Amino acid sequence: MEALSSKRYRVRDDFKTARPVYVVWEITLACNLKCTHCGSRAGKVRPGELTTEQCFEVVDSLKKLGTREISIIGGEAFLRKDWLDIIRRIDGHGMECSMQTGAYNLTEKRITDAKEAGIKNIGVSIDGLPDVHNEIRGRKDSFEQAITCLGLLKKHNIVSSVNTTITKKNKNQLNELLDILIANGVKNWQVQLVVAMGNAVDHSDELIIQPYELIEFYDNLIQIYRRALANNVLVQAGNNIGYFGPYEHIWRQGSVGYYSGCGAGHTALGIEADGVVKGCPSLPTTDYTGGNIKNMSIEDIWNYSEEMFFSRYRNKNEMWGGCKGCYYETSCLAGCSWTSHVLFGKRGNNPFCHHRALELHKKGQKERIRKIKEAEGTSFDYGLYEVVVEDFNGNIIEVQTPTSTPTIVNEYTTRIPRDPEPLKLCQSCKNHIYESSEDCDFCGENFEASTAKYEKNLAHAKQVLIRLENLINLDKVNDE
Description:
Blueprint lengths: L11 H6 L4 E5 L25 H14 L3 E5 L9 H10 L3 E6 L6 H10 L3 E5 L4 H8 L4 H14 L3 E8 L7 H10 L4 E6 L5 H4 L1 H4 L6 H17 L3 E4 L10 H4 L16 E4 L4 E3 L6 H4 L2 E2 L5 H7 L5 H4 L15 H4 L4 H8 L9 H9 L2 E9 L10 E8 L4 E5 L22 E3 L6 E3 L12 H33 L1
Helix pairs in contact: 2-3
C-alpha cells in the first residue's frame, strides 16, 4: 500500500534542526466552488498575487531550506495560468509536488499536463455522500466531478488520495462513503475535523461537532479504519484528529506514532498567494504573518521572524483551561494551533481532544463550545467561543472564557528548537507514557512486563496464523 507521501513525515532530527519539511502553498485564492466550511473564504483572486518569477524564487529558497514536499492549493490551484510552470520548478529541484483540489473542472487534459510537469500525487476533497457533498461545496454536480477525477487519476497512474472534512452533516455517512472510495480504487483517505474559521464560523451550529461527541465518533471511526484497512485503504488522521486516546498509536502510524505538537514554523510552512508567509497555511493571517517574500527572503522569515518561533520554542506556560495540567501538556501543547486559536483568539486550550473527553467522562462531565462573537467576513478570519463544562444532566460546572484568562507570552530567549520528550506505548491499556516511566501512569502495569506479555501473545498469534495458512494450503493441494 502506498502512503500519501513519505517525504512529509517528520523525524526527530527535523525538530532539532527546525527544517520546513512540508510546505503548503496557496498559489491563488481564485476558486470555482463555494464551500460552506472554507477557512480562507476563497473565490476571487487575492490582490497582489505573486508573479511567476517570484514563485520561482520561492521554490529555489525552499530547496535551500531543506523542504522535501510542497503541496499546491488554492482556492483552486489550476486556475492560476502558470500552475504547470510552478510544478515543473518544484519537480526540477527534486522536491515532491502534490496538489489538493476540489476537482471541479479538473479535466483530463489538465491532469495529464500536471503529470507531465511532475506532479506526484493529487488529493481530491470529498465531504460526504452526493447530497451532502454538493450542499457543502455549493455545486450540484461537484460530487460527480470529484468521482470522475478519481477515475482519471487512476487511468493515468497518478497517486491519488481523498480528503474529507468531518462535519455534523457527514459524520454518519463515512461508512457509506468508504464503500464509494473502495469502488473507485482509493488507497489513501485523510480525515480532519472542521475548524471554526472563515465560512465555517458563519455555519458553525450546523457544521461543527461538539467536543463531547468525540468519544462516540472515534469509536465509530476506528471501526471504519479497520474495515478500510481490510480493503487496502489507509485512513490518515489530520492534525486535529485524536490526541492520546486509546487509538492514538493507530492514527499516527507512519509518523513518530503519536501527536508530537504543532509543527507550524518548526517542521511546516504555509504561503499565501500574495507572498505572505506563515508557520502553517491555515493559521489566521493577522496573528501569524512572519513576513512577505516581496520584501524579505523566506530564509530570513524562517530564521528571524518572531511570528515563526512560537512552535519551535513554546512551552507549557501557554496552557490554560482544560489543557493546563494535562499529562500530555509538554508533548501535545494543546494540539493543532489552528483549531485552538480560531476558537479563542489565542493558543493553549483545545477541547477537541479524545484524551480530554475520556478523562472528563470518567468524572461524569462533558464539554461543549458556545459562540460569543461572529467572524468579520474576511479571508482566514475567526470569531470567538467559550468552553462550557457541564455534568451529564446539563448543569454547568465551569465556563472557560478566553477574555477572562490572561494570555501567556513566551519569551524566546533560548534559540534552541523544542525537542519533545519521547513517549512509549503501554501495551496493556494503549495509552502513551513518558519514556522515564517504569510503570504505566494510567493502568499501573509494569511497562517491561506488559510489553513482554504482548510480544509473547503476538508471537503465539503469528504461529497460529502460520498453522492456519498451512492447513488452508494443504486443503487446496488435496482438492487438486
